[in-house]
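Entry 12.
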Amino acid sequence: MELLNLEESMEELRESFRSRRTRNAAWRRAQLKGLLRMLEEKEEEIFKTLKEDIGKHSAEAFRDEIGTLTKSLNLALSCLEDWMASKKVHVPVIAFPTSGEIVPEPLGVVLIFSTWNFPIGLALEPLIGAIAAGNVAVVKPSELAPACSSFLAKHVPMYLDNKAVKIMEGGVSTAERLLEEKWDKIFFTGSAQVAHVVMSAAAKHLTPVTLELGGKCPAIFDSFSSLRDREVAIRRLVNGKWGLCSGQACVGIDYLLVEEKHASKVIDLLKNRIKNFYGDSPQETNSISRIINKNHFMRLKNLIEDSTVKASIVHGGAMDEDNLFIEPTILLDPPLKSQIMTTEIFGPFLPVITLKKIEDSIEFISSRPQPLAIYAFTKDETFKKRIISETSSGSVTFNDAIIQFACDTLPFGGVGQSGFGKYHGKFSFDEFSHGKAVLRRSLITELSFQYPPWSDYKIGFLRAAYNFDYIALFLLLIGLKRK
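Predicted 3D structure (tokens):
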């Protein structure tokens, strides 16, 4: 969709929604099957675009984008009629004879802003929910991943109803122009800085917004008596830090909290696992993503330019500016007031922060903005309960990282500065639906009567019951008598 034809395209979208064809289960199912077919038929091309834009290995691309989307589409297709069905609800007995239900209805014309670190996955994942819920949509891919943006603009119209789903390419000016329009829902994935702009624009039209942001997601590493437990935990921790887009993921681990006495052992285990995963020269193995562009590379480079931060590097730190590559890097106790510890890293640096007691991690996390996720590696059940009850975050995962992102039965989303709204699985359908309350009441028990204009206060009670359902009145009197 071209910006010059925006008004015409918006009217076409609105007309598609007004026609009510998107409310039909057959239409929704056809669009979801179209997306699934696109992923199957264009898999190799998607691998190439992800490699071109961000250097993703095909195994990572399948796991985090194609595979995840395929799973979500199959779930939506298998559950669509159930999600669309109205749900009966309990109605108080005093309202008898009355029935109530919640009827899901689509919101209308929705706008989806995607981001560059998962340029296919985070463009289409919310679109699955929007389509399943019966909406029409505009998807704005990130201009920082131009090959993936071009792929979506070229192929989505070939597989989906082009009058109901449109791809809008462009940069900041395009996003600003889109935000001038009136939408029935805006779904944004990106930085908190841009989220302020999105919310301000949405407020002009009272448009509901979902914000999928990020924050500094901590990992807590408790002591383990078993060497096997430590090694498994370290393997999952390394994957949770560097396995997703070289740390360029809002849900990835930002920093690690350990007890001071265990720090050297944990760092040695991390070094060994990094070598095992990525080899002696991670850049040459082509098994880890590169930095998205020069601006982000320089931002990351500046994070460790400070001499006190640079002095804390205990592993890695090598950079190749020409190829936008930074190797996995571990820092031990960088200054807590340094930029690397006050802003979201979104890159391959892992600060390891030492504490006197691992329980102090609760205070450490609680004194900072609410993260999108907390990852705690521990077998201590009491400690787990304290983390759940004494911290606030979008999610808490014990003894693993990132896996909650792929679990469709759990809502994915943030809280506070890490965003609001939730999606994945049925939650995506709900996020793009309005649950309309419907109440049905019978007329058969209604009885009208005339009464004299008495002023006695006891008769006033009967006045209040005028045209009142006799059965409901009887139940009310019984309740009063019991009191």
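Annotation: The chain has a mean pLDDT of 92. The longest helix spans residues 58-84.
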